[in-house]
TrEMBL record:
GO molecular function: 2 iron, 2 sulfur cluster binding; metal ion binding; oxidoreductase activity
InterPro entries according to UniProt: 2Fe-2S-bd, 2Fe-2S-bd_dom_sf, 2Fe-2S_ferredoxin-like_sf, 2Fe-2S_ferredoxin-type, Beta-grasp_dom_sf, Diverse_Oxidoreductases
Family matches, as PANTHER family: OXIDOREDUCTASE WITH IRON-SULFUR SUBUNIT, XANTHINE DEHYDROGENASE IRON-SULFUR-BINDING SUBUNIT XDHC-RELATED
UniProt superkingdom: Bacteria
Key words, A-Z: 2Fe-2S, Iron, Iron-sulfur, Metal-binding, Oxidoreductase
Coiled-coil annotated residue ranges, if any: none
Domain 2Fe-2S ferredoxin-type: 9-84
Protein name: (2Fe-2S)-binding protein
Natural source organism: Borborobacter arsenicus
Length: 170
């Protein structure tokens, strides 16, 4: 689409607990908006909703940022991986991925971390099949899947309390 022809509108939303405003083109996706706001954790890889690298939480629901129009987050609460650490301390899911060595290149990790937050909010003590099913939309080209499963199990054990889950930070 020609940018000159795009309709631009102003949106207001909360991003990692802070009120934000932005001008967005009608065709702009959420990942591109986050990049414009200097957040690079959600990565566009496939651009087709197939890999999960762009996963963020919108009103506590994991979405593919590559398929979500930025204008649709108007009035919403958006959480990205950048908002998880507090006072320089990684949150329990991030720490579990470190502790279990659940990555190699790390490109997919923010997406897995955000999806794990949604999983543990909905199923606090997931079985291994439930973890595999829930994370089936997230792909890791380094094939760190065994370590990722262990990281989710470790995060479930270390989950501080419901208030520690993304979406309730703000
Ligand atoms: S980049 Fe969005 S799902 Fe792959
Ligand atoms: S750690 Fe490299 S793609 Fe997952």
């Amino acid at each position: 689409m020609n940018d000159k022809a795009a309709v631009v509108r102003r949106i207001r939303f909360r991003l990692n607990g802070r009120q934000r405003e932005a001008q967005v083109a009608s065709h702009e996706n959420l990942v591109d908006l986050l990049v414009r706001l200097d957040l690079f954790g959600a990565r566009e890889s496939c651009g087709q909703g197939l890999c999960g690298c762009c996963t963020v939480l919108v009103d506590d629901i994991a979405v593919s940022g590559c398929l979500t129009l930025a204008q649709l987050v108007d009035g919403c609460e958006v959480h990205t991986v950048e908002g998880l650490a507090e006072k320089g301390k990684l949150d329990f899911v991030q720490q579990a991925f470190i502790d279990e060595g659940a990555f190699q290149c790390g490109f997919c990790t923010p997406g897995f971390v955000m999806m794990t937050h949604e999983l543990l909010k909905r199923i606090p003590e997931p079985s291994e099949p439930e973890i595999r099913e829930y994370l089936s939309g997230n792909l890791c080209r380094c094939a760190a899947y065994p370590e990722i499963i262990r990281a989710v199990q470790t995060a479930a054990r270390n989950r501080p309390d419901p208030a520690g889950v993304a979406g309730e930070h703000a």
